[in-house]
Write a structure and sequence with these properties.
The chain is of the alpha+beta class and 466 residues long. The protein has ten helices and 23 strands.
């Protein structure tokens, strides 16, 4: 029996060992493969790389958001600035015209005929016209037209007057102007003029026109009054003279520009200058443009380049492109300048050509910078080019008072003497400023009138404003 127990114990141990070996084998067969050397370190690096990428993406999103916030803040700031500027602009008083109408007048329809009678019927004027109002009287052949033109920097009272004068004169066979009267009232430049056409070209009727131009702080106001009726019979009282007297009385107090407390723009002086280069340089007299806050040449703004008060010279340049300014360029003589005894001429915008001779190559007190000429020169003609019969610049017109001033001349100069700065002085001034000017030899000889007209084409009206 003891033997049987021993055998049974051995069999049990054997089964136990076999079970353990089977379990070990199963574990070896079905266990996952062991990672290769260094695999653990690589996994850590991958995880760290993913974290870095996420941090970078998060930072990018935050940066983008901040940029959007900054841009929105800048846009809001610009909008607020525009709003403040707009509020400031709208709060500024707007100039207005106070017009006192004769009794029985009222606003009427702007008929086509009245539109043609207005100043702003041309494209150049219409583009800056901001108001057009017509007033009419019951059972009366009279009409009052009020126009407002914005931007007086680009349109002067003289521009309006010349346009009106051209219109009324063009359709008249027999006419007469009373005026113009150029004045300064309460700091406002005002032009008044009356034109009587005793017989129109188109029909057997008479026409009386009145113009009043008032310059506001930044705008021009134009009041036109028009009457049409039968032409007067010779020897009979037509009543036209009495009507003009009545209009003149009415015009004196009928219209005034009120700007609500703003400053008035006042013209300090007026004269002439002329174009001396293809780059848009202009010469004028220094005394005309001294102490000006702005200067225009035939309504085109220009900037000061240089000045020489001792010679009474100033050099300007158009702010606009030279090709947009319809003014010819003056020509100077090559070689010897004009000589004593040479015929010279000049012409302003509102005057006929004037001619004379160079009587001496010196001015008052023996000043060699000046020419003495027999051409009549008034203070209004200061700055005009004085040309020889070839249309070539011989000098620049200077009125007697300023010629005496720059030459420091003692008393005793003949009252009939007239003067001009010599072309030699003008060219020396331009050379010092490195201005390239046109030169030519004496060629074609013109009549004094034609030579003056050629010089006039190079001329610009100078206006000095405070």
């Amino acid at each position: 029996m003891h033997g049987c127990l021993l055998e049974s114990s051995r069999n049990k141990k054997g089964r136990t060992m076999r079970s353990a070996m089977i379990a070990l084998a199963a574990a070896l067969v079905f266990a996952p493969p062991a990672p290769p050397a260094g695999a653990a370190a690589t996994g850590v690096q991958l995880a760290q790389s993913k974290d870095d990428a996420m941090r970078r993406e998060l930072q990018r999103l935050q940066d983008d958001r901040q940029r959007l916030l900054d841009k929105a803040a800048q846009s809001r700031m610009r909008r607020e600035q525009r709003t403040r500027k707009g509020a400031a602009k709208t709060s500024q008083p707007h100039p207005r015209l106070t017009l006192v109408l004769p009794p029985g007048w009222s606003s009427g329809e702007a008929a086509m005929a009245l539109e043609k009678a207005a100043i702003g019927d041309t494209p150049a004027f219409a583009k800056v016209r901001s108001e057009f109002t017509v007033y009419a009287a019951e059972e009366s052949p009279e009409t009052i037209i009020v126009e407002r033109f914005g931007g007086s920097q680009s349109l002067s009272p003289d521009d309006v007057y010349r346009r009106w004068r051209k219109k009324v004169n063009a359709g008249c066979a027999d006419g007469r102007e009373t005026g113009p009267d150029d004045s300064d009232r309460d700091g406002q430049a005002v032009i008044d003029s009356f034109y009587t056409c005793f017989k129109r070209k188109a029909d057997d009727r008479a026409e009386v026109s009145m113009l009043k131009v008032i310059e506001g702080p930044a705008e021009l106001f134009v009041v036109s009054r028009l009457w049409m009726g039968p032409s007067p019979v010779a020897g009979e009282d037509s009543g036209i003279e009495a009507m003009i007297d009545e209009w003149r009385t009415w015009s004196a107090s009928a219209a005034k520009v009120e700007d609500g407390g703003g400053k008035h723009r006042k013209k300090l002086s007026q004269g002439y200058g002329f174009v001396v280069s293809n780059d848009g340089h202009l010469l004028t007299a220094d005394h005309l443009v001294r102490d000006c806050s702005s200067v225009s040449f035939s309504s085109f703004p220009a900037k000061l380049v240089a000045s020489d008060p001792d010679k009474d010279l100033a050099l300007f340049k158009f702010e606009a492109k030279p090709e947009s300014v319809a003014v010819a360029v003056a020509v100077f003589r090559t070689g010897l300048e004009a000589a004593q005894g040479d015929i010279v001429a000049l012409q302003g915008f509102e005057t006929d050509a004037a001619a004379g001779v160079i009587s001496a190559l010196i001015g008052p007190g023996g000043d060699p910078r000046l020419l003495s000429v027999s051409v009549p020169i008034s203070a209004a003609n200061g700055g005009l080019p004085l040309v020889d019969l070839g249309g070539i610049v011989a000098g620049m017109a200077m009125d007697r008072a300023n010629a005496m001033k720059i030459s420091a001349s003692p008393p005793g100069v003949p009252a009939a003497a007239n003067f001009a700065l010599s072309a030699k002085v003008l060219k020396g001034f331009l050379d010092a400023q490195r201005v390239v000017y046109e030169t030519s030899n004496a060629g074609t000889i013109f009549s004094p009138g034609v030579a003056a007209q050629r010089a006039r084409s190079t001329t610009a009206l100078v206006e000095c404003w405070n």
